[in-house]
Amino acid sequence: MQLPQAFIDKYTNLLGDEAPAFFASLDQDVEHGFRLNPLKAKYQDVALDLHHPVPFVQDAYYGTVSGKSLAHQAGYVYSQDISAMYVAEVAAAQPGERVLDLCAAPGGKSTQLAAQLQNQGLLVSNEINTKRARILAENMERIGATNVIVLNEDPANMEQYFPAYFDKIVVDAPCSGEGMFRKDHNAVTYWHEHYPAECAVRQKNILNSALKMLRPGGQLVYSTCTFAPEEDEQIAAWLLATYPELEMVAVPKVAGMTPGQTAFADNDSEMTKAVRMMPHHFQGEGQFVAKFQLAQTAPELAPVPTTKKKKRRGKQARGKSNSLSKEQLALWEEFKQSFFMDRGGQKFSTNNLRLNGNYLYYYDASWPDIDQMKYVRPGILLGEFKKHRFEPSYALALAVQPAEIQAKLDLDESEWRQYVGGNTVQYTGPSQPNGWYLLVCAGKPFAMGKLVNGIIKNFFPKGLRF
Ligand SMILES: C[S@@+](CC[C@H](N)C(=O)[O-])C[C@H]1O[C@@H](n2cnc3c(N)ncnc32)[C@H](O)[C@@H]1O
């Protein structure tokens, strides 16, 4: 790989004797990994090689996964770089917590945080870039978490709505991406000498917003995929200097991980509590992770909102949320009765429904009001009301477990392939009445289908077909 001379000079100076090994490693192949998704029933029952676990990350393995496999489509697996997996592992969200992933697309950390939460508590996954926020929403939908809101906001706009609200915040910051040079040689072309310093300005702005949303006693995890001290140790040191109520928490180092470098931040010895993953020592991409604790006694850092809340913004935010009409409620209840065992029990109860236009969402009544914010997914999309009927969503199929559904049809792998390719399927199983069914292949729910006189009509989302 052709590295810019300024980059070579910089790291020759910073890394000294290690520099040749560091530069050489940027031309070597990277080890791939994937994580299984414990939110799915029997999640380890996948046709993948699970003989090589990543020892320091829950449910993670070395290897590659096809995006066109059943396990991937049905949300049982997420491909992720080995180093990147360590960020959410360090955040260690606990069931019941309120967690914010502030720079979340495409969803590597968010999918992992959702798994840690086990559908208890709330995960707000935010992405500022609209196109990327949609991809994030698709990934969150695929893994089937039922406690996730996907926002498409500038962090600065979020402060007033979530003052001192979250127990944990992950800032996986936009950065100069030097750690990605190995995987994406094109990334080198964006790099210039002043790029890290420019990124640092943006990182500080994002962190200032994040801290206003962190509750006293809460924890912040900051990470980048760059080697630049300006964006790593120097940002961590700036945080400590700017927010005396913050202290660093030591991040455990496993084989190959190196401590943050004191020399990169005015000999601040706290920096050894952070971790660096450098490609000449560690098998994944380059990564920096630092963890901070906000003192329990810290004053709330958020301004008390005094101004009137802004009007709803953005296309997705249009259509005031309102309650269901009698007909809509009856259609939903009718669907629930035929689809779920025990009519769904307490799941998706009427208190937790929210209508946006004709779209019906599950939105837990205890969650914060996001009406004023730009969102992509305000909870789980359950389905859409069409003329005198209810059409259940793909997201619902991925958010339920087979055992809680009575209306389901088992398809084999070739029928699955036919269906995800956008085709109808001739149903050959025991006779069933017409209606909506959860489609299941090898025990994995993968879509909704409508059975009409022995044919399963195709409702697989057009953009996801393969
Ligand atoms: C390193 S990536 C996040 C990767 C993600 N956490 C994952 O694990 O899949 C950083 C993200 O920050 C977003 N971003 C860019 N500028 C931002 C800003 N000013 N505030 C918040 N996020 C920003 C980028 O669009 C990008 O998706």
Write the layout of secondary structure elements.
Blueprint: H1 5-15, H2 19-25, E1 33-36, E2 60-62, H3 70-73, E3 77-79, H4 85-91, E4 98-101, H5 108-117, E5 122-126, H6 130-143, E6 148-151, H7 155-158, E7 166-172, H8 195-212, E8 214-224, H9 233-242, E9 246-249, E10 258-259, E11 275-277, E12 287-294, H10 326-339, E13 353-356, E14 359-362, E15 375-377, E16 380-386, E17 389-392, H11 394-399, E18 408-411, H12 413-420, E19 425-426, E20 435-441, E21 444-452, E22 455-457
Parallel strand pairs: 4-5, 4-7, 5-6, 7-8, 18-20
Antiparallel strand pairs: 1-2, 1-3, 6-15, 8-12, 9-12, 10-11, 11-12, 13-14, 14-16, 16-17, 19-22, 20-21, 21-22
The protein binds S-adenosylmethionine (SAM).
List the keywords:
3 domains, ten-stranded mixed β-sheet, Nuclear Transport Factor 2, Chain: A, 466 residues, 12 helices, alpha+beta, Rossmann fold, binds S-adenosylmethionine, five-stranded mixed β-sheet
Walkthrough of the structure:
The protein is an alpha+beta fold and 466 residues long. The chain has three domains: 5-294, Vaccinia Virus protein VP39 (Rossmann fold, 3-Layer(aba) Sandwich), CATH 3.40.50.150; 309-400, Nuclear Transport Factor 2, Chain: A (Roll); 407-466, Archaeosine Trna-guanine Transglycosylase, Chain: A, domain 4. Helix content is 24%, strand content 23%. The strands form four sheets. Strands 4, 5, 6, 7, 8, 9, 10, 11, 12 and 15 form a ten-stranded mixed beta sheet that branches. Helix 1 crosses helix 2 (19-25) and helix 4 (85-91) runs parallel beside helix 5. Bound molecules: S-adenosylmethionine.
